[in-house]
Amino acid sequence: MLTTAARALARSWPGLLAWFLAGWTARLLLLRLAGAVGNEWPLLGQLILPLAVIARLASYVAMFLVLRSALPHVPDPESTAAGWRGFLSRWGTAISAAILPFFVIYAAWGMIAEDSRDYASSALDQANYFADQSARALDVTVDAWSLSLLAVAFAARWLLQRFREKLPRWTAVVSAYLEAVWVLVALLIVRELLAGVPNWFATRRMFAPVVDAVVRWRDDTPWFRGLGDAFSWLMTQLGDVVFQPLAWVALAGVVYLGSRTVADRSTAGARTRRARAVAVERWNRLPGWVRTGVTAITGGFQERWLPIAGSVRLIWSAGPLVLAGFLLAYAVVHAAGEWAGMGLFRMLGPNPYAFWAAVDELIDLAIVMIVIPLQLVLVAAAYDTAARGGVAPLSPVAAAEPEAVPNR
Fold first, then answer.
1. Does residue 371 surpass a pLDDT of 70?
2. Quick one: 202 and 306 in the same domain?
3. What is the DSSP letter of 37?
4. Which residue ranges traverse the bilayer (predicted)?
């Protein structure tokens, strides 16, 4: 795996750096635009913010596609479509497929908090307080407007996906944007609703004694407090060094969708094949209108989550050595980035505030410009190593094979 990663990095590093910098620049400019517009019209600013998220995702997807040619066991099913036109076509398709899985990573590992902070900082920088203007960009309220926006974006995206075969190819871009809008607005609304839950419990008479008793017991019982702190620390570390890398492998599986053929499904066990046959037989017994309705409703779910489940199965089937080596290498790169940042700050020593204001973001950029491409190279190499002998994830095309999906 490490040999594959080194070869892929040596072959693809110019493209990796170029795409990373392009995504970083586009995200920064879009956040500035969203902050400026959000100060005047918060809802409109929230419509621009998803573009910054898509810019980050688009750069990561492009980096995975750049690495694809250096991965011996992840062949390109559309290698005949050479040149920029073919690359852009595969890029757009992969972005649309990867949006929802990416938002799982985006929400679970604090990227949404990072973008929210940068969005708020941009709004504060551009607010004109002398004109009696306040930064209102993050005023996310659960009202008829926000819920209507959520419903319209979701419905429009569903319609575009439902009739995509009859629509022009450029509508895939609109579909990707609408998906980002409804997912991001939904996350912001849920975060706004959950923010008041602890205070709500603490202020309810029926729950206040229970909350107070738990707080007192935690303060009076050192072992319980230590156990809770240790559990929180353990889950944080597991998230950073285990769950997050595996989530990135799942995202790589979505990007590399179609890299394995339908014939690979023959590796499924006999028990799995029997269970699938029973499910297909029972499905065929349902009325045609029920099958059509369920397929229409769950089609988008299957397109996104079947590849993720297959990718997790793929990396798990690669064996403990591959899995442990990948997680260790990913953790080493992550820790090296943190230590490099600390070392640079210590090496520069004490300086005036103006100096740090000028170089702080440059140092952060220099570190992430190295760390993130290295991490994505490791993810791609781990996927390639697992694909060499593992069970390939199902693509929607593969899942639609007549023997696996019943006739309607």
1. yes
2. no
3. H
4. 46-67, 88-109, 144-160, 172-190, 241-258, 314-333, 353-378
Least confident of 12-16, 347-351, 362-366: 347-351
Eight-class DSSP state of 168: -
The verdict on 93 and 168 lying in the same domain is no
What is the separation, in whole angstroms, between the first and last Cα of the chain?
43
User: For the chain, what percent of residues have pLDDT higher than 70?
Assistant: 67
- 118 CB contacts (<8 Å, ≥6 apart)? 31
CA 386 to chain centre: 21
Helix/strand number for the chain, H first, E second: 15, 0
255 with 373, same domain: the answer is yes
Residue with token string 């409109």: 44
| Enclosing domain of residue 167 | 142-211
Yes or no: say if 70 and 27 are a contact pair by the CB < 8 Å rule: no
pLDDT value at residue 147: 79
Domain count, the chain: 2
Q: Which residues contact 341 (CB under 8 A, 6 or more apart)?
A: 363, 364, 367
d(CA 42, CA 55): 20
Are 103 and 249 found together in one domain?
A: yes
7 Cβ partners below 8 Å, 6+ apart? 70
CA dihedral 37, 42, 44, 45 (to 10 degrees): 60
| Among 21-35, 76-90, 176-190, 212-226, the least confident range | 76-90
Q: Provide the 3-class DSSP secondary structure of residue 408.
A: coil
Give the Cβ contact number of residue 377 at 10 Å: 26
- Give the pLDDT confidence of 134-146 residue by residue, as tens digits: 556 666 666 677 7
Q: Are residues 14 and 87 in the same domain?
A: yes
Same domain, 179 and 278: no
